[in-house]
Amino acid sequence: MKTELLHSNSCKSLLNMNLVREPSTSSLFTAEELRHMEASSRKSSDGSTTEIVQASSSTSGSSNSVASTWLQQWCKSTFRKKTLRKRLPILDWSRDYSWQKFAADCIAGLTVGLTILPQGLAYASLAGLPPQYGLYSGFIGSFIYVLFGATKAVTIGPTAILSIITLAYTAGKPKEYAVLLCFLSGVVTFLTGVFQLGFIVNFISQPVLSGFTTVAAITICSTQVKSLLGLHFPADGVVSVVQGVYNHVDEISENDAILSIICILTLLTLRRLQDIFSCCVKKDSWIDKLLWFISTSRSCIVIGACTVFFSLTHDESLRVSVMGEITPGLPSFQIPPFLQVVNMTLESDNDVFADSMDNTTVLHHQHHLWEYLKTDSSPLLVIPLLALMEHVTAAKALAGTKPVDASQEMISIGLTNMVGSFFSSIPVTGSFSRSMVNAASGAESPLGGLLTGSMIILSLQYLVPYLYFVPNSSLAAVIVCAVISNIDFKIAYQLWFSKKMDLIPWAVTFCVSLLIGLEYGILSGFLISVVFLLYYAARPRVRINSAETSHGCKFILVELDRSLVFPCVEYTRYVIMKSGNVWAKNDLPVVVDCQFIQFADFTAAKGVCDLFSVFNSKGQMLILWKAKPSIIRILSQVMDSEKTPYQFCTTEAELETLIDAKLHTSATKAGHVDLSPFRMTLPPIIESINKDKSDNVVTIDLP
């Protein structure tokens, strides 16, 4: 079989055709041979590059500094056509854009616009802010993602999870603080994308994500209970809401409760409208498409119908709690409140959801916005992390077989939040529900966001005065129906029967998020996921086998299943030393199978050097078998500097030669051995190992 190396991510590689020898020759290398091969490999692989660099240096002259050379190389790599298309995806998808795609994007943009209008109002209220802030946050992301968005169907705007997290950090604080968090979280997200750190989201496991989203959905639903029932009492959590409802059950507004039930039933019915008529409507017919459009625009239909009804009804017996005055017009362009000192208004009952009609005592205090970050800087980590998590989840669900560039998506989110903060936006990210609507509408590119953003701007300019009579209970019903599907307890059943250990991060995230706070829940889940990864990295699985050569010489074979890096060095040393003491009886040779070791660091090399020192001191043979040349180079450099004798071998024949030579008192030298004509055949070893697995194979997992 002939193979050809197409690409390698390693900085330096010893895999070169010069290392390939004839089968009859030995593949056991000394340290001097390895250094010689490495030098020849670098010379052969980098020769042409060296000539180019030397030619460039000779033409530019000695006056060019290292900084200018680095700047030229950076500009050359950054402003390549491939890099520009990657950072500005519009340059890529616009090349084959057509009028048919434009028509599809217009339909999708109109549909998403009808969806985001009621959701924006609802999510701003969920964040404890005036309703217009939800619309302020909806149009900037639609415009920016057209230029920087890499997934055609993703739409950026306010979401339920980010809104409830914003409420957790801004409750009782001035609304300008939410704008400041929008800018700062955008900076953190943007820099994370620039430095290619999008992989961070991979450290949040599915159990952690499920536990967090479940509690977030429960918390969001609980915050809307007061609006659904027309109640007004102080509450800031699930437990306090339940207690408040129980204590104020006699104050429930019948009109608000009835309207909430009607709106929820209507929304759930419209959501399944196509399924209801699937038996009598032909699929993909114009009637089916009309039913789909009605189902997709259900939130706008319900809010619009309720608003029109109560604006025309003046019967006091049908009175419900309405949204009230909303500031009309577009947001003014202003710098985010970096150094602004604001008057903070505190209500005597500390009710962050209090109705404007309540008679409360108001206290005014002056606070510097930066003081809040000095007290608690966790939003600079939690908000970008959740924004990336939501956005990448939506992008992966809609990208199909196309890979998702998480770093590019982070750049687009960061720019949206930074620019949006100049227009009084709250933190935003990719919306999973609206992105699914966009994809189902037939979006062919992010260009539909232009129409969505334009609809929001027109609504702010001309439609806001007519939103006075929007019932709070109908907005609450829209929020509840949007997030209730995120409640998932089925995963606990699946984890119990698949891997019970994964129940720990799910349960911890769920309990901490529910009892302490969502921001602490996601951080605890993130930390538990990292701890689990570190534990697995520090505790590799090791198999201890009893084997013998074709001449009957017994030895202990230690199999390692992963690379040697500093977290697992101590554990690996302990296992190998125990193998030499317990199973090898401080006499039999110990062979370490290194075929699965792809990487080793300096700490690992020092640990291996210490192992050879211990084994050499008691006269017991330790052999590293099937180690790759790159691994041998790292280990041999350390052991040569420490002047520690060591032994490597690559083939089965060399391994048998070393073991038989030891038992027949043949002369050996550190780092090199004179090969005898003996050869070890593999079948006897396999038969010996598999002869009685219960006696000869030991698998250990030590704490």
Automatic annotation (TrEMBL):
One Pfam entry name: Sulfate_transp
Compartment list: Membrane
Regions of compositional bias (Polar residues) in chain numbering: 46-55
Transmembrane segments: 102-123, 143-165, 177-204, 290-312, 411-430, 450-468, 475-497, 503-536
Domain SLC26A/SulP transporter: 102-509
Biased composition (Low complexity): 56-65
Region (Disordered): 39-65
InterPro entries to which the protein is assigned, alphabetical: SLC26A/SulP_dom, SLC26A/SulP_fam
Membrane-topology annotation of the record: Multi-pass membrane protein
Top-level taxonomic group: Eukaryota
Protein name: SLC26A/SulP transporter domain-containing protein
